Amino acid sequence: MNNLHQRSLFEKLWQSHEVTSLGARRSLIYIDRVFLHERTGSIALQSLSERKRKIPRPEHVFCTMDHIIDTTPGRNDNTLMPSGHKFIQATRYEAIKAGITLFDLNNPDQGIAHVISPELGIALPGSTLVCPDSHTCTLGAIGALAWGIGSTEAEHAMATRTLDLEKPLSMRIVVNGTLRSGVSAKDLILHIIAEYGAQGGNGYAVEFAGSAIRDMPIEERFTLCNMAVEFSAFTGFIAPDEKTIDWVKGRDYAPKADTAEQAEAYWLALNSDEGAHFDKEIQIDADAVSATVSWGTNPQHSVAVNGSVPNPMACDDPQQRDGMEKALNYMDLKAEQTLNTVVIDAAFIGSCTNSRIADLRAAAAILKNRKIATNLRAVCVPGSGRVKRQAEAEGLDLIFTAAGFEWREPGCSMCFYAGGETFGAGKRVISSTNRNFEGRQGPAVKTHIASPVTVAASALLGRIGSAEEII
Ligand SMILES: CC(C)[C@H](C(=O)O)[C@@H](O)C(=O)O
Ligand code: SF4
């Protein structure tokens, strides 16, 4: 039974940040922290400074270099993106002038925005954080209300600490049961998007709940929420629990001493009340999820690694059928072709989806004492300087390089061609990233998205394959 006192987590997060109602589902929402990167943040900073607008609370604004920077060892401001160094230098100049915190190329804490903002305790449970980048929803994993905005909104948020927002509808995705061994959050989110469509979350703020989510380590929760935007959701989030508190505790920008205790008690109360209303609910059986890989040009085009490419003729919706046919054509695949016979040219482990320490450990466990297939190029790019150092302290870098992977400096790298890094025209890549759109990883590149263990296993096999085939 619903009543007005029973509120969903989303209601609690929204109401605790509502400065005022602007009528007709619009509210002015208080923004706790703004995060920027050099690709879009530089534009917002430059525009603010041209209009002579100051950032009144610069201590709440942070900026990293991740998108277009070079990720090869010994890097400098030069990048494969034509005139990319100008973005980097403009970001540096404006960030210093505005007095915000900058994680510059040589900063030991530099990394991908969505990896470092929780890692440093800048994103916190119960807080609002915005960034001109669509994967800001990643931070919902620890119970933050975080979403991607445009550069103009970023200017507004920096200048006023508020944003005028239309309230999304609420959805709860309840995942009960247990994910099978070798099946991770990445497989789960690809499964959900394949099942309910890339538009399935459009207009909704999505809470992930259920026993499989409670059982999930925090690092996998980041992966799950990261792809809420690939489901077209406004954002995705998970109620904080003891695991969240342990993960956040003591981080650089997290509350300290007495305020930490108060904050932790508050965070633990941030969950959906029994009987709270949701505009939509979906139930997923975790036991039914297999290791999953994309075959097409949209994350919705995903199937079990051991399965086969669907036949567009079997699809009733003419628009979707057309999309599937175009995707098969671009990906150079045939309807009903078995996926684990598809030969790959390259493998990539990295991105804000899967470049945290748990991802690298999981991939390294598959690669240990093994070698990647001949004629295959494989690259691993840790998500942050901290992840990289931790991995090196554990000897994971040596496992990757002994297997034949390149080991690089933190950044978005081959997740997105914006920085110019690519495996080369027309190559077929198995990738731990979140987007498989045409040209996403470079001209004519064919991207198959999968979990880090599937990427590692496929790199060894030289074709798409699951970890089950290795162990
Ligand atoms: C460049 C940036 C705005 C973009 C985003 O919004 O997500 C990028 O990070 C991506 O993954 O496509
Ligand atoms: S790693 Fe990829 S998805 Fe994530 S912010 Fe960078 S470009 Fe976007």
Summarize the SSE layout with pairings.
Layout: H1 9-15, E1 18-23, E2 26-30, E3 33-37, H2 41-50, E4 61-64, H3 84-98, E5 101-103, H4 113-119, E6 128-131, E7 145-148, H5 151-160, E8 162-166, E9 169-176, H6 185-196, E10 204-209, H7 211-214, H8 218-226, E11 235-237, H9 242-248, H10 257-268, E12 280-285, E13 292-294, E14 302-304, H11 318-331, E15 346-349, H12 357-367, E16 377-380, H13 385-393, H14 396-403, E17 405-407, E18 428-431, E19 446-449, H15 452-461
Parallel strand pairs: 3-4, 3-6, 4-5, 6-7, 9-10, 9-12, 10-11, 15-16, 15-18, 16-17, 18-19
Antiparallel strand pairs: 1-2, 2-8, 13-14
The structure holds 3-isopropylmalic acid (IPM) and iron/sulfur cluster.
